[in-house]
Amino acid sequence: MVLDRGPLRLLRRGGPVSGLAGLLAGRVPPAAYRWHAAYDVSEVRRSVEHAGWRLAHVDGWTHPTRAETLEALGEALALPGWWGRNLDALADCLRDLDTDRTVVLWDGWGPLAREDGRVFGIILRLLTDSGLAVLLRGDGPEVHVPDLD
């Protein structure tokens, strides 16, 4: 049975790579990005881990407040149980955390950004300043980060 008579597409090393593949290949630097892909979290995790990276998923739809977001970040990043669950403690823990090759997929970031833009901005800055790649997925207010699509 022949499924496709078209030519086989070859992927060449060193060619342009964009989106998540570019990030995981090291062609796109870790930073904060808007990401519009609708992949299931398990599919994203599989791709990220296959590339030798770690995925930390934060579900902002079910954790929309400052306290809930901090709790969800602590769980996703496997912060120690004794961490203080506040912005200063997050900053301290991120300094001690191995953030190399870690992607934070923040689904539903919009509710916190709308409710408390200042806190959202601080959290985003703390995450990116520590070297994490942060993918903001879902609707939210205008933020000045590039798209990763």
Describe the structure.
By secondary structure, the protein is of the alpha/beta class. It has one domain: Barnase, Chain D (2-Layer Sandwich), CATH 3.30.370.10. The chain contains six helices and four strands. A four-stranded parallel β-sheet has the order 1-4-3-2, with helices on both faces. Helix 4 runs parallel beside helix 6 (117-129). InterPro entries: Barstar (IPR000468), Barstar-like_sf (IPR035905). This is Barstar. It comes from Nocardioides marmotae. Pfam families: Barstar.
Fourth CATH level, the homologous superfamily: Barstar-like
Largest β-sheet summary: 4 strands, parallel
Structural class: alpha/beta
Q: What's the CATH topology label?
A: Barnase, Chain D
- Helical content class: 25-40%
Name the CATH class: Alpha Beta
InterPro entries: Barstar, Barstar-like_sf
Protein name: Barstar
Pfam families: Barstar
Family: Belongs to the barstar family.
Key features of this structure:
4-stranded parallel sheet, 149 residues, alpha/beta, Barnase, Chain D, globular, Barstar, Barstar-like_sf, 6 helices
In short:
The protein has six helices and four strands, in the order αβαβααβααβ.
Furnish the topology, listing elements before pairings.
Blueprint: H1 19-24, E1 32-34, H2 41-50, E2 54-59, H3 66-76, H4 87-96, E3 102-107, H5 110-115, H6 117-129, E4 133-137
Parallel strand pairs: 1-4, 2-3, 3-4
Helix pairs in contact: 4-6
InterPro entries: Barstar, Barstar-like_sf
Pfam family, one: Barstar
Family: Belongs to the barstar family.
